[in-house]
Amino acid sequence: MAELHPAIARVTDRIIEKSRASRSRYVALMERESGRTPDRRQIACSNLAHAIAASGNDKAAIADPQTPNLAIVTAYNDMLSAHQPYGRYPEQMKLFAREVGATMQVAGGTPAMCDGVTQGQDGMELSLFSRDAIAMAGAVALSHEVFDGMAMLGICDKIVPGLLIAALRFGHMGCVFIPSGPMPSGISNKEKQKTRQLYAEGKVDRDALLDSENASYHAPGTCTFFGTANSNQMMMEMMGLHMPGAAFVAPNTALRTQLTRAAVHRLAQISQRGSDPRPLYRCVDEKAVVNAIVGLMATGGSTNHALHIPAFARAAGIIVDWSDMEEISHTVPLLARIYPNGSGDVNHFHAAGGMGYVIRELLDAGLAHDDILTIGGQSLRDQAAEPVLDDEVLTWRQPPERSGDDAMLRPVREPFQNDGGMRLLSGNLGRATIKISAVAPEHWTIEAPCRVFDTQRAVADAFKAGDLEQDTVVVVRFQGPRANGMPELHKLTPVLGILQDRGFKVALVTDGRMSGASGKVPAAIHCTPEAKDGGPLSRLRDGDVIRVDAVTGVLSTTADLASRTPAEAPPPSEGVGREIFSIMRAGADGAEQGASAMLSAAGL
């Protein structure tokens, strides 16, 4: 067993120390909740009758307090490809539960919106706060106190973090996350990206663009690029909250069905009434959170987790900030290049060795904590396994000794780069994050006059008018959580990519978001304090020289910002429900804390 790398140990110890008081309060709450969870025989008969009225032949079993009764919290809808397979899961899972003397009930559903559908649209302004809504919906589902364990069905962007926040507040119970897997690979990512740029330049029409997109996003399952959704699945593996190797097995296959069956059987065992109780609060500790960060850096995952990791960690009483994440990034080498960081997608990654290979490499190099309590084994090393069917029986084998594709997956001794590619920038423009794993080194440092915009649409208009044909730092402000809900700014990616391809030095600076799909243009994102609160971006003017330096970690301007009056934020927008999320915007805390109104209001 390799000795833990001193930097990983140092960051972990720092997180433990600064979380000491809040973690102690959380653990005490979970122990209290575990002690007060009612025996179902002690629940008032009227209450229990309501809970089992529609349960048919399971009524007697649910009423028996010795029977594990397991909650299903589902983010099913059939508009979202990743979640469409979940429609048939509950009935299957109930059968699987009966096989081991347990019962299951659908406790409730949560929203599941898709950033891929709403990007560039008004509805994107609800996206980040849907995480809080999902967490609250999950809490409502679990509040009936007739459950001994919880199965969380969710995959995509805000959905897994929201479900995890909810589950952690019921962390006295056992919990398993159950994915449904990625869709089959479509057209090559390079071909898709080329068509998008041609459309942005007006060289192909909308029909050609739609044909290209349909050839990419074409079937049930998760989108196959390594954005937030697949980064979520990677992190659930790194934290031991999946059955080993479950993340990237295709939907609607025999192996996927058997993994779901195994997850239900295991949940019955680790539930409060099971033979091997493993409450979630014991599984998700400081070491597990550090493992999530390590995995993010090793695989070049989504920058959205600079928001989500601090948020779900807070729900477990754990305090994490961007300095912790950066130190881990400087320590952990990049082992995977998955689109948009490389040419292959998550299916190719899985075929090359996938998460089992990554986990084993990290453990053998002392870069992850092995001594965490996983749902399926005794340590993280038990997650370093590849599920297979042997004569229709689910079993696990060791991951391959060598990568099946060294253009996509490499060992620690021969990484793609020596760090994880996520950096912290700071200076007189505040603090921001930048992901450089997909950015060529010659673009890591840019100093140029800026152009200041308040919307991404205004950037597109300036591009079409030819006003950005120069070295420039594009600033898009009033995109933070308190201003408009911090939408993704994906519409900027083709525009900025074209300018860079034309030979201009280009960078983006924003208090908004750009996920793991952001690509090859350097982007200083999540700037905090945000412009809405009078942050530095609100004082910038066209022509101010900005330096974005991912080598030295600098985000600064030569302008005298202190002498200027902050620009006024645009008025709040209405339509597509944005007005009813005003309480979320007003109460949101900063990006580095996780940009959550709910956690802030709860004092977490």
Automatic annotation (TrEMBL):
GO terms for molecular function: phosphogluconate dehydratase activity. The keyword Disulfide bond does not apply. Pathway: Carbohydrate metabolism; Entner-Doudoroff pathway. The keyword Iron-sulfur applies. Binds 1 [4Fe-4S] cluster. Residues 408-595 form the Dihydroxy-acid/6-phosphogluconate dehydratase C-terminal domain. Keywords: 4Fe-4S, Carbohydrate metabolism, Gluconate utilization, Iron, Iron-sulfur, Lyase, Metal-binding. It is an enzyme of class 4 (lyase). Its EC number is 4.2.1.12. Its cofactor is [4Fe-4S] cluster. Pfam families: ILV_EDD_C, ILVD_EDD_N. Residues 68-382 form the Dihydroxy-acid/6-phosphogluconate dehydratase N-terminal domain. [4Fe-4S] cluster binds at C156, C223. It catalyses: 6-phospho-D-gluconate = 2-dehydro-3-deoxy-6-phospho-D-gluconate + H2O. Catalyzes the dehydration of 6-phospho-D-gluconate to 2-dehydro-3-deoxy-6-phospho-D-gluconate. Belongs to the IlvD/Edd family. This is Phosphogluconate dehydratase.
